[in-house]
Amino acid sequence: MRAVRNILRGVIDYGFRGAKLSYSQFGEDIIAHFALENLGIRHPRYIDIGANQPYTGSNTALFYESGSRGINIEPDPFLFAAFRKFRKRDINLNVGVLDRSGESEFYVMSFRDMSTFSRSEAEARTRKFDAQIVRVIKVKVFALNEIFAEYGAPNLPHFMSIDAEGADELILRAFDFSSWSPEVICCETLSFSSTTNWEKNESLIRFVESKGYFVLADTWLNTVFVLERAWKTAMPESLSDTRNDRPVARGKGSQSESDFHSPN
Questions:
Q1: Which pLDDT value is given to residue 260?
Q2: 231 to each of 104, 186, 213, 240, how far by Cα in Å?
């Protein structure tokens, strides 16, 4: 029976891959593919932080299917098991990413894609989405700089996808952009924690822009950024269009480190 369950789980996640144009939730992989192709990067290396599933909702599966390789990071042991089966060419890490290394409490939710290292985020989701905290486990965590230093060389990622369920800004603010600058970044910029409104995290968007990136596209849930100097080299005549003022949504403050707890 275990073998049958494994096969069924694989079929559900693996899906009819040949019939799909996009694996992402809102076509983020197509947008990233467009950007990378215009930069002359045909087979990008990627890093997927909070990878969740090998194919369903993945921002990197499209590139894997095209022959690319990369790094998948998923802290949930249950979800991680599928990567070993279906993303065998990739480096797959069953760890978490925060702004530091060590060990941290991970809140496993009844909806697995809502699991998070943030206690306040987990509690907010129990109120807003009727989710439950199933259990709290201890997970090894690393700063993103450590991941890049250990697994990025010699071929550094061109595309970085971050879906860290409330920790995206914390992770990026601790990242050394002067040492590593992926050409394309996709990260979640919509807040799920508000009890009244959906809120774009303008603090995070402005921060990434300050590191030499511009907003290529926004899919409501995620924002896709491109490294400005790379785009200027590849498509200098189009860059002026990226500097038009963006309509600013209701903003949200930066994520506090106190929301992410290490075990005593």
A1: 59
A2: 38, 16, 9, 11
Within a domain: residue 125? no
Q: Within a 10 A sphere around the Cβ of 156, how many other Cβ atoms? A: 15
Of the candidates 252, 251, 250, 234, the residue with the CA atom closest to the CA atom of residue 242 = 234
User: Coil, helix or strand for 179?
Assistant: coil
Is 122 a domain residue? no
* Three-state DSSP class for residue 240: helix
Going by DSSP bridges, is the β-strand pair 70-73/91-93 parallel, antiparallel, or unpaired? parallel
Residue 86 sits in which domain range? 22-97+140-247
Segment 108-148, tens digit of pLDDT: 988 887 888 888 888 887 887 888 889 999 999 999 999 99
Q: Name the pTM for this structure.
A: 0.83
- 35 DSSP assignment: H
Nearest to 220 by CA among 198, 240, 203, 241: 198
Instruction: Provide the CATH number for the domain around residue 76.
Output: 3.40.50.150
User: How far apart, in whole angstroms, are the C-alpha atoms of residue 263 and residue 137?
Assistant: 10
